[in-house]
Amino acid sequence: MHVTHLSLADFRSYARVEVPLDPGVSAFVGANGQGKTNLVEAVGYLATLSSHRVSSDAPLVRMGADRAVIRAAVTQGERSQLVELELNPGKANRARINRSSQVRPRDVLGIVRTVLFAPEDLALVKGDPGERRRFLDELVTARSPRMAGVRSDYDRVLKQRNTLLKSAAMARRHGGRSMDMSTLDVWDQHLARAGAEVLARRLDLISALQPLTDKAYEALAPGGGPIALEYRSSSAPAGTEHAGPVTREELYEQLMGALAEARKQEIERGVTLIGPHRDDLLLKLGQLPAKGYASHGESWSYALALRLASYDLLRAEGNEPVLVLDDVFAELDARRRERLAELVAPGEQVLVTAAVDDDVPHVLAGARYAVADGQVERV
Ligand SMILES: Nc1ncnc2c1ncn2[C@@H]1O[C@H](COP(=O)(O)OP(=O)(O)OP(=O)(O)O)[C@@H](O)[C@H]1O
Ligand SMILES: [Mg+2]
Questions:
Q1: Integer angstrom CA distances of residue 205 from 124, 153, 235, 241
Q2: Residue 158: which of 127, 198, 128, 129 has the closest Cα?
């Protein structure tokens, strides 16, 4: 798929901007702070309903405005669609498809798909487990937009279960009436049901991603691997996660068992300690975890390899995503820069940002846009 037109109103630094786009490479070039990342951030938001830079919507709305609108015309094969999101910080966001009446924002997932490379990706390797869970879940949702609903069910159940545990912890501390455990049993089942689905999708994704990441790492840093992706589950003892193919039912039982075992501790602490929200993806380089051991350059190659593998996977599954490369070339040495550029150049649509023309590798010749003073002009 590719975006044929992007239109922003009161998004970040843009009061209004209209950007017609072609398939192939488009490079957005301009000095620091002119709004290049803001443009591609908007495209990424349509694909994931979140920004790759901030966790809340408030900074996305132009200072002084009370809402932002992102609109994109999208073509996939013969089919064209118009998606529109209105961001209302503090209130519910709104969405429309083809100018029809409103739909839920998550109904637009799957129309725009992106794989976004950005300097922030280094946190995939060096950052907290939450970064890697987000990586997995965004890709799970890109493969299967229906999972956005399962995710939000899971989050809702988790919140309610935590509230229940917190009041149990309070009651326990203050010697109050002890809680009726059958209520918690019901929440355990809800959590395990949605959690098993999340787990199953993550495990399936990791096994699909493993060979592609290995291949991408080898292409970026020949001879530097091998790499291995290992899921670290809060509901399975370390080392038993990859004991073989697992069904939803087995994962459900695994979660129920782990919840039963952790219950006493959970009531003491007043928080849910078991479930996909506590899991991690261990990234190994050779025999060692990349986090804490890999060099800066190796960490970069690893992060890029994960993104390239994501791209290969989505493309192989039939819907080619838009590739977004935000400021990544400036961060790479000449050799990896050329390698990465060659790998992404054939993409159906590639959006690149760079502060200076020279940072855009030659193989990525294509349309150029100058970004300055809130304006985006094709040059
Ligand atoms: N909500 C907002 N309202 C108004 N301006 C904003 C808002 N959010 C960000 N900006 C402005 O947008 C600019 C940053 O834009 P952006 O991150 O797209 O820059 P860039 O062109 O990618 O720069 P660099 O080359 O440094 O990456 C900053 O000047 C910032 O003050
Ligand atoms: Mg930028």
A1: 16, 20, 18, 14
A2: 198
Query: Are the C-beta atoms of 213 and 306 separated by less than 8 Å?
Result: yes
| Ligand 1 atom 14: residue of nearest CA | 33
| Closest ligand (CA of 42) | 1
Largest pairwise CA distance in the chain: 72
Ligand 2 geometric centre to CA of 313 (Å): 27
Q: Tens of pLDDT along 200-248?
A: 999 999 999 999 999 999 999 999 989 999 999 999 876 666 555 689 9
The DSSP secondary-structure symbol of 24 reads E
The DSSP line for 95-129 is EEETT-SEE-GGGGBTTB-EEEE-GGGHHHHHS-H
Per-residue confidence (pLDDT) for residue 174, from 0 to 100: 80
As given in the structure block, the two tokens for residue 2 are 């590719």
Q: Considering the entire predicted model, what is its pTM?
A: 0.94
Tens digit of each residue's pLDDT (9 = 90 or more) over 325-364: 999 988 888 888 999 999 999 999 999 999 999 889 999 9
Task: List Cα–Cα distances, 328 to 118, 149, 165, 319, 324, in angstroms.
Answer: 6, 32, 44, 24, 10
Q: Checking DSSP bridges between strand 367-372 and strand 24-29, what pairing results, if any?
A: parallel
Q: Is 64 in the pocket of ligand 1 (CB under 6 A)?
A: no
First to last CA, the chain: 24
